[in-house]
Each structure stands twice: as structure tokens, then as C-alpha cells.
Write a structure and sequence with these properties.
With 235 residues, the protein is of the alpha+beta class. The protein has 8 helices and 11 strands. The longest helix is centred in the N-terminal third of the chain and has 45 residues.
Length: 235
């Protein structure tokens, strides 16, 4: 009778399993190495979102790189002497849904602190001040068909005009930006909150402000006078 040799198949299978598991760990490490550059943009996107949230001051958006006029209009420098202008987030939340906007014609001249354009809201007309001196070289044609763009995206699709400003540096000195703009909007928000508590007797539990049509919440009949007061156009 020949000699019988015993082979432990379970032991050999165990070795095979260890080899497979080791290969999988190596594969995973290699995959992570190859994709680390793809993961970085995702992290950057998250931090970008956090940065944008930090620009929401007292419920009002204050983007970086934008200059503000105290009458709640804004300026973004596009070129050496070319700027884009519009109404800020505070203004659109103050008046609510805008029915139409009357803009000056291309080629006309606007002056800083004087009437720049006029809002039509619920059949009432409200002037807003131009934040710069210069010649109107372009207007947002889309505003005619979609005036509510100023409510949806006041610093983007809701832009109003492009103006060529000869003395841009001098004009910018009269405007607010960065931390100064944030302090200004904080003060404006506080003044508005005091006005709400005094005129309407309303105290919001969270200390916040109405999101849309703030002036109408204060006085449904004379809300336009309140808006003009904050826009510095009240006579």
C-alpha cells in the first residue's frame, strides 16, 4: 500500500485569501493616490460656499470686490474706467417685486449722487441715485422683459448699466467697500429694525427682518416714502 500524503486545503486557501486581501488594499491605496487631485476641487468648492455665506451680513448680501453708494446702489469695476452698476440686495428686499425699471438712454451722462434710474413698484415710482459720474455706454436689455432679475440676482443678471467713468479713482473714494461696507449695512439694518419696532410695533423672535417688501410691512400705504428715506431720495 503506497504512502498517503495529507494536504491541508484550508491552509492553502487561507494563504490565497490573504494574497487577495493584500492586493485589494494595494489597489485602494493606488486609486486614492491617482484621485487625490480630483478630491481637492471638491474641498475647495465647500470652502468657497462657506466664504460666500460669510458675506451675508444681517440677512443682506455684500459681495467682495463691489463698491456701495449709501443710497443702496453698487459699482463693480470691469476695466480701467468701465464699471457695471445696479441696486443692492438691501434695496430689492426693501421694495419687493419690481414691476419695471426706467433706465437712462445710452450716451446720456449720470452724476454721482443724482438720479440714476427709477423703479416702478405697484404703480409707485421711486428714484435711485447713481453711484458714479460718467457716460452710459450700455444698459441691460433683459431688464425690460424681466425686471424681477433685480430681485432674483441683484449683483448678477440684475445689473442695470455699464458706465464709462473718467475720474474713477475719485468716484471710488466716495463709495464703501470691504469691512466698511459691512459695517454700513449692519448700521442700516439696525436702523431698519428700530423703525420696525417703533412704527409697526413688531418684534421678530429671531431678531430678523422680513425677506421681501420690507417697507410694505411697515406701512402698506406710504411704504414708498420709507424706501425713499433709505435710498436718500426723499424730498
Amino acid at each position: 500500500m503506497g504512502q498517503f500524503t495529507y494536504i491541508d486545503i484550508y491552509a492553502t486557501k487561507g494563504i490565497e485569501y490573504l494574497i487577495v486581501i493584500g492586493f485589494l488594499f494595494t489597489l485602494i491605496a493606488f486609486w486614492r493616490f491617482l484621485n487625490v487631485s480630483k478630491l481637492k476641487p471638491i474641498s475647495n468648492a465647500v470652502f468657497e460656499g462657506i466664504r460666500k455665506l460669510s458675506e451675508l451680513i444681517e440677512g443682506f448680501l455684500i459681495p467682495d470686490g463691489v463698491y456701495f453708494h449709501p443710497g443702496h446702489t453698487w459699482v463693480k469695476v470691469e476695466d480701467n474706467d468701465l464699471v457695471t452698476i445696479g441696486m443692492d440686495d438691501f434695496a430689492q428686499k426693501m421694495v419687493g417685486d419690481v414691476s419695471a425699471i426706467e433706465l437712462p438712454p445710452v450716451g446720456s451722462f449720470v452724476r454721482q449722487g443724482d438720479k440714476g434710474w427709477m423703479l416702478n413698484v405697484d404703480s409707485k415710482y421711486i428714484d435711485m441715485l447713481s453711484p458714479v459720474d460718467g457716460e452710459v455706454v450700455s444698459i441691460n436689455q433683459g431688464i425690460k422683459n424681466s425686471p424681477d432679475s433685480v430681485n432674483k440676482d441683484s449683483y448678477g443678471e440684475g445689473w442695470l448699466m455699464k458706465v464709462r467713468v473718467p475720474d474713477l479713482k475719485i468716484n471710488l473714494k466716495n463709495l464703501l467697500s470691504g469691512n466698511l461696507a459691512k459695517k454700513w449695512i449692519t448700521d442700516a439694518s439696525e436702523n431698519l429694525r428700530l423703525r420696525i419696532n417703533h412704527d409697526a410695533g413688531l418684534v421678530y423672535q429671531d431678531g430678523g427682518l422680513p425677506v421681501k417688501g420690507i417697507a410694505k410691512n411697515l406701512n402698506p400705504d406710504k411704504w414708498d416714502e420709507i424706501a425713499k428715506e433709505f435710498f436718500l431720495t426723499k424730498e
